[in-house]
Amino acid sequence: MTTALLSSAYCAPVQWFQKLNRYDMVLVEQYDHFLKQTYRNRCVIATANGTQSLTIPVERPEEEKCLMRDVRISDHGNWRRQHWTALATAYGDSPFFDYYADDLRPLFEKKRDFLFDFNMELTQLLCELLDVRPQIGVTSGYAEAAANDFRDAIRPKHPMPDADFNPQPYYQVYDHRHGFIPNLSVLDLLFNMGNEAIFYL
Prior knowledge:
Layout lengths: L2 E5 L6 H9 L2 E5 L12 E6 L2 E6 L23 H13 L5 H8 L10 H16 L4 E4 L36 H4 L7 H8 L8
Parallel strand pairs: 1-2, 2-5
Antiparallel strand pairs: 3-4
């Protein structure tokens, strides 16, 4: 039985979801320290003007180092509405946005306290929509490094080499402007490819 270790992620990139589809078991780390500028609280989408990062604001922890499971979401800046508006603007013309919008919108309307819990709830829904059926667990303590440890490998800046991930082009709304952009949020794959998205994972 193969197991992969992943960091928590908000609307994770295609590479992250590929691990859910390829490994027998996935453990999501909840005892690592929260790091800024990671997929823990941001996702990257394609827009008419290029890529855009959507970042969930978090409350500044009292301690300098805060465990991921203890990070609280901030309501600063009406981010839920902004993120949903950004998604609707970017993908409103994609083939499958309207098909999935009613399933996803409620998650952007209800307040959640903890980032980790919100990410897990969103991940479960995305798995259902993608028809990915992984066995997902969460760590009960900080997991020791393993062979299939992708916690620090899958990140927006300076990703580590991953021989198992070779992104293949698929249809994107703005590819005529920007060319194919690999490893965006899995929402990009879902909205553009619908029920065929799983074949790209």
